[in-house]
Amino acid sequence: MPAPVKSVKPDFEVIRRNKVYEEVAKQIERLILKKLKPGDKLPSERELAEILQVSRSSIRDAIRGLELVGLVEPRQGTGTIVRERTTESSANPFANALKRRQGLVTELLDFRKMIEPPLAARAAANATAEEISEMEEILQRQEKTQSQGEAAIAEDADFHYGIALASGNSVVLKVIDTLMDLLRDTREHSLQVEGRAQKSLAGHRRILAAIKRHDAEAAKAAMRRHIEDVEEIVLNTKF
Amino acid sequence: MPAPVKSVKPDFEVIRRNKVYEEVAKQIERLILKKLKPGDKLPSERELAEILQVSRSSIRDAIRGLELVGLVEPRQGTGTIVRERTTESSANPFANALKRRQGLVTELLDFRKMIEPPLAARAAANATAEEISEMEEILQRQEKTQSQGEAAIAEDADFHYGIALASGNSVVLKVIDTLMDLLRDTREHSLQVEGRAQKSLAGHRRILAAIKRHDAEAAKAAMRRHIEDVEEIVLNTKF
DNA sequence: GCAAGTGGTCTGGTAAGCGGACCAGCTCAC
DNA sequence: GTGAGCTGGTCCGCTTACCAGACCACTTGC
Fold this sequence. Notes:
two-stranded antiparallel ribbon; 3% strand; homodimer; DNA-binding; mainly alpha; globular; disordered N terminus; 10 helices
């Protein structure tokens, strides 16, 4: 059940200035989730400042935040490394954040159930040969990652993002983009469940096959089934 | 066709700090579109500052911007009034903004086609008696406004927003919320077309009727038809 | 051991926003 | 009328976030 909201559309929202270091923190967090393992080194502060087009101070503010929540550990002279994720302790703010979002997870899944099947249908209609081969590469990466016993979180995200791209609708892209932060939570969780990884890969393959032969209805159906699989896992798992 | 985007998901986005007065300007602009007519007075600067929780300086910066594009006219001692919209001139930045977004309009419609039918289905399943009567009130307001020969822009927005509320999915709500700025453009336009207003009201009534008897499939179908109507109008109109 | 790279610290400067005070113009009740 | 109470117009000083650069302390690899 959602939080009670004021009647219909409120005329105004309070305005909040966004802080650069918060944005930076989000992006670094995303990078860690997608591309880095515990023990890996972050790009240097000066490098990040260059890439993100902000000053080093802002990078440092962001890193200090990530350090405080225990995600990262700066070492003078060496670099900033990604810390082991302490999944057990309930004092772990990371796990807590996940739990707090538990209500959101089902809503997110529901949202995906609404949007992704028709999205897959449009991808089937509009995908270019180039986009299809791009997605094929992604699935190969997913297979490789999983064969090494790792969770292919980044690849899973890339695949679904690739479909949004291939749909040719930039509005959807924008939406998916802003929801990425939340999406990755459900994804990370479900991929760690036993036997889930194989099922995910198979689902992706079915979807891509339908897209490849430009069969919109089949793509839609395959996507629906895929997301229902994810849903089943998530709902039947105790947190 | 969307702008060419870099291969799949880019690792980083450049970070931009938002400016409070720009946000304020957006909200005031929205208020004008939704609730005010030319000649109406804006809330006083001090009042707006209180509501939006920003300083009066920021409100003033925003109003200056709206004054520069000719949307609004501050009068010392009286208040700030909404100016007549000069619809004809192609030098009108308002109309230009609409045209520039022309490409977006079809994509937005497509997005709505994806999301709103399943959303209506969920609303049919989850809507409380209170939410339903809320939507009934909105439709009565829409009827009243249209009977006076005016475009019921605010009511149209409220109705669709009400459905999102009744669906009980806060994620969807968040998405709709952030897209509101764009949505209002397609809506404003389509409602001004001859005969469109009646059709819109009828469509809304059918949707609400289905929701009221908790018929998810009928709600979905009615919503799909409603949006296709809108789409037809928009696509067949020369800008 | 030393050069090169890293994070740690500090300083000076800029821009946005805040909060408050005061002025000038309009309106309306008395 | 006229004055009280609104309104927008202007100015000031302060704080915060951010930037740019310099320098230090530490680690590592040659």
